Structures are given as structure tokens and as C-alpha cells.
TrEMBL record:
It comes from the Bacteria. This is DUF1876 domain-containing protein. Residues 29-51 are annotated as: Disordered. It comes from Streptomyces muensis. InterPro entries: Rv2632c-like (IPR015057), Rv2632c-like_sf (IPR038070).
Length: 100
């Protein structure tokens, strides 16, 4: 059996406004049998006024928080799909797999 390869893309958009940095991590999936879909995670970083102004640190923190949020959202989607779609195929109406 041949392996099926899928490509998912994550783009991180970062905006800075003074001491605040915001990031959005957007996961885009595309399958030949489905339309493209996207999931977005968000993260924020705020520089403490007593810290040196190093924008890269704010970028890194906001991006990592956006990716963490994206991971949680993707896990929630998968969990919802498991509840709704997974389980054995109904064989003639048998519900033997359900708990009483």
C-alpha cells in the first residue's frame, strides 16, 4: 500500500504595537477530497517596561503562545470529531459498544 502524503501549512502573522506583540498562527489544511480549512491560534506578549527593548523576544513569546493555542484548538477539533464520528460501524443497529 502506498503512503498518502498530506501537506499542512502553518503561517505565523506577527504585529507589534509599542510594548505589545500579537501573533496569529494559522493552520491551513487541504485535501483533494475536501475543501481547504483553517484553524487559528492567538498569542500575546507584553514587554515589562524595566526590560530592555528586544523585539525578537516578544515575537518569540507571542508566536509560541499562538502555536500553543493552535495546538489546543486542533486537539479540541479532533476530540469533537472522535465523539461524533469515531467508533465501530453500526452493524444492523447493534449498540453493543455503548455503556449501559
Amino acid at each position: 500500500m502506498a503512503d498518502k502524503q498530506k501537506d499542512w501549512t502553518v503561517r505565523i502573522h506577527i504585529t507589534e504595537d509599542g510594548d505589545d506583540t500579537r501573533a496569529e498562527a494559522v493552520l491551513t489544511t487541504e485535501d483533494a477530497s475536501q475543501d481547504a480549512s483553517a484553524v487559528t491560534g492567538r498569542g500575546v506578549a507584553h514587554r515589562n517596561p524595566i526590560d530592555r527593548p528586544i523585539p525578537e523576544i516578544g515575537d518569540e513569546l507571542a508566536a509560541s503562545r499562538a502555536l500553543e493555542d493552535l495546538a489546543i484548538r486542533l486537539h479540541d477539533i479532533a476530540s469533537d470529531d472522535i465523539v461524533e464520528l469515531a467508533g465501530p460501524v453500526d452493524q444492523g443497529g447493534s449498540r453493543a459498544w455503548e455503556r449501559p
